[in-house]
Design a protein that fits this description.
- By secondary structure, the protein is α/β, with parallel strands linked by helices.
- It has a single domain (15-306), classed as TIM Barrel (Alpha-Beta Barrel).
- Helix content is 41%, strand content 19%.
- It has nine helices and twelve strands.
- It has helices at 24-28, 60-71, 91-104, 133-150, 171-182, 190-200, 204-210, 245-258, 274-306, and strands at residues 15-18, 46-50, 73-77, 108-112, 115-118, 121-127, 155-157, 185-189, 216-222, 225-229, 232-236, 263-266.
- It has an eight-stranded parallel β-barrel, surrounded by five helices. Strands 5-6 form a two-stranded antiparallel sheet. Strands 10-11 form a two-stranded antiparallel ribbon.
- The longest helix is centred in the C-terminal third of the chain and has 33 residues, at 274-306.
- It binds fe (ii) ion.
Length: 307
């Protein structure tokens, strides 16, 4: 199952940002995101929106997104399906998601492996599942149901974690196995890897090495907050600040080894103006170029060594 043939894929070196209603006008304006000298800061390649914000019958959100879709490719990112939960998937939610996809024809569709509902109670959070065979089987079943209901392949996103849960495998093994079992792809959120690695004390580089890079079709970058809880320092995936240099270093490491992937900068708390997001996108784009140049130069020296 792939994307419908008439939808153009997003090129691998593309960089986009999460789009909020506050940005609609600037995203469409020829004035758009410009710096003090009047130069355009960054030409966005695509935008990502949260599916749930467009699960309505019409009105301004649809009108704006249709206008944006005419100019840009789209990624639609779901946050409420609860793929990693035990409860059955909500069939109405799946139907509404299908309607959003049919209406806006995004090149990328993604959801979290996190869970956010249990026993009919909805939690306003994305909670990491235990990494067990039971959770793997249940999540794979949910991904199969989702892909069948949507008629297309989805990408699944790794969570950010705050607690060590019972596990029978590593998270990369869990993610790779889900993709191999269901045919879905991976949305690798490198900020989530970093946040989890700091909170649970594992090596983020080893995590990236263990991910099957051939399955990764999109990357997320975002900012996070540093907090202290009962004397313990934790990193909170709040998407409310610029992407930090440590996450940038991991991103460059992954791209250098795996090649470029469509990259999306998320910013969901204290939404800044589009200019700020354009600066973040330009930063990510430069990181991508630096990583690609390093790949190129190491290939070049390998060629010289073998000559
Ligand atoms: Fe993300």
């Amino acid at each position: 199952m792939t994307i419908p043939e008439h939808i153009k894929p997003i090129p691998s070196s593309s960089v986009g940002v999460g789009l909020k209603p506050a940005h609609y006008r600037d995203a469409l304006s020829p004035i758009g995101a410009r710096d003090g000298a009047g130069d355009r800061i960054f030409e966005f390649d695509f935008f990502e929106v949260h599916a749930e914000n467009y699960m309505c019958d019409g009105g301004p959100p649809h009108a704006w997104l249709h206008a944006i879709r005419e100019r840009y490719q789209l990624s639609i990112h779901g946050v409420c399906l609860s793929l990693g939960g035990i409860d059955n998937l909500d069939k109405d939610h799946l139907r509404r998601l299908r309607e959003v996809l049919d209406r806006f024809e995004p090149a990328l569709v993604s959801e979290h492996i996190a869970w956010c509902a249990h026993g009919g109670v909805f939690y306003n959070d994305l909670l990491a599942p235990p990494l067990t065979q039971t959770a793997l089987a249940r999540t794979a079943e949910h991904i199969d149901q989702t892909q069948n209901a949507l008629g297309r392949r989805i990408l699944i996103e790794n969570p950010s974690s705050y607690l060590k849960l019972p596990s029978e495998m590593s998270e990369p093994e869990f993610m790779n196995a889900l993709a191999h079992k269901t045919g879905c792809g991976l949305l690798l959120d490198i900020n989530n890897v970093y946040v989890s690695a700091c909170n649970l004390k594992f090596n983020a580089t080893e995590y990236l090495d263990a991910i099957d890079a051939t399955l990764v079709d999109e990357i997320h970058l975002a900012g996070h907050a540093l907090d202290t809880n009962m004397g313990v320092e934790i990193r909170v995936d709040d998407h409310g600040s610029p992407v930090c240099e440590d996450v940038g270093a991991l991103y460059r490491y992954f791209i250098q080894n795996a090649g470029a992937r469509p990259t999306l900068v998320e910013w969901d708390t204290d939404t800044p103006p589009l200019e700020t997001l354009a600066l973040e996108a330009a930063k990510a784009s430069n990181w991508m170029k630096v990583a690609q140049e390093k790949t190129g130069s190491s290939r070049q020296s390998a060629k010289l060594e073998n000559a």
